[in-house]
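ZP: hey, is the flavin-adenine dinucleotide complex queued? I don't see it on the tracker
AM: it wasn't, my bad. submitting now with these inputs:
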Amino acid sequence: MDWNDTPQQAEFRSNVRAFLQDRLPAYYKDHELRRHLDSGLENDWQQDLHNGTPDQQAAAKEWAMALAERGWGQPHWPKEHGGASLTPFDQFILKQEFAIAEAPEIGGSLIGSTLLVHGTEEQKQRFLAPTLTGELRWAQGFSEPGAGSDLGSLQCRAVRDGDEYVINGQKLWTSAGHKANWIFGLFRTDPDAPKHRGISFLVLDATTPGVSVRPIISMGWEHATNETFYEDVRVPAANLIGEQNRGWYVGMTLLDYERSGIGGAVAHRRNMDELVANVKTDATPNRASLVKNEIVDRYVESEVMYNLALRVASMHAAGTLPNYEASMGKLYSTELAQRVARTGMKAFGLYAHLWSPAEPLAPLHAKHTQASCHTVVGTIAGGSNEIQRNIIATRGLGLPRG
Ligand SMILES: Cc1cc2nc3c(=O)[nH]c(=O)nc-3n(C[C@H](O)[C@H](O)[C@H](O)COP(=O)(O)OP(=O)(O)OC[C@H]3O[C@@H](n4cnc5c(N)ncnc54)[C@H](O)[C@@H]3O)c2cc1C
């Protein structure tokens, strides 16, 4: 397989690089500053836009305006809705170069892609533009206490009452639910139908009376996700996406957006390069030799991940939909992230106990120490790795179910 760019792809790539050089605000180019400020977490453009200091807000707006000029905020969206109608491989290149430059992405891709396929014209007009500008900050309400891997068992009820639905029940793991101003979710509208056929897809204003959000604090003291409760929440029927009771199919819409995992693959490479550079310059006797073999293993694995990402991207480019191949990328990347964190911790010995990125003695701003906690959830969120293994076993290898 030849992974080199074609002449057109090389031209597009150099275009993207020039754009990043010219238009990425200085604030986002200062990676040291951002790592120090944001506790080692990923860039969060929404966070900067809504809750940032005046400088962060200005940078977030400047970046959004630069992206809007080219439709690169949501490059897979059609031009008439503010996207760029890029081909899958150009999306891949764009995402790859943005990840290398650590340029923040604009959120809302999941709901946007779903609306493009299933929304009415009125819904597209109403929701797409404000999603692009960051005015709408979305959270996903799918999972429930008894419905995660087996999502079809969800129980949160939406009952039609005139021009409204009335929602009662609970959602779990609503990431960013405490920051979101809109929620998209799956709700049971027909309890008597076979379980996948009685579900509807609704969007709602998160400030509607009756919606309450309770934090879930992770083992890394991070407030990223929540429990969400619905008590007689009245949602206009105009907020139904697709048909009533056909929401399962809306929720499972295969997104055309490039989902190769290239962002994670670039981050793994960067982490390894940083770790190698750090270990090489450290004069502690025997330090490098203690972890050298592990570092080599992680380095090779990060290259494997890169190739898995390229495989998924090339399938999109060829017009085929990745299936178990995307599961392989998710499985490999999330487990690799945990292994890299452990190797990084080992390399720093007792200094790996320092938790705060602002602590001057914390190596690499405590990145690996933080990651040792934050990467745990990666193998659960977005479909657990056991489920990914089931997909690879049955669809990839043709092994029997059960
Ligand atoms: C940090 C985080 C953020 C999340 N964000 C969101 C969000 O924003 N919105 C949202 O809707 N959801 C979100 N989720 C929910 C996520 O999709 C579910 O946690 C995930 O699908 C697993 O479901 P569960 O937690 O109910 O576990 P279960 O489905 O109860 O699984 C428990 C264990 O059993 C295993 N298991 C289950 N079924 C099988 C099977 N058939 N074969 C083999 N093993 C199996 C699982 O792998 C797991 O180890 C988030 C989860 C986390 C941890």
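AM: back. Residues 276 and 295 are 8 Å apart (CA to CA).
ZP: great, adding it to the tracker
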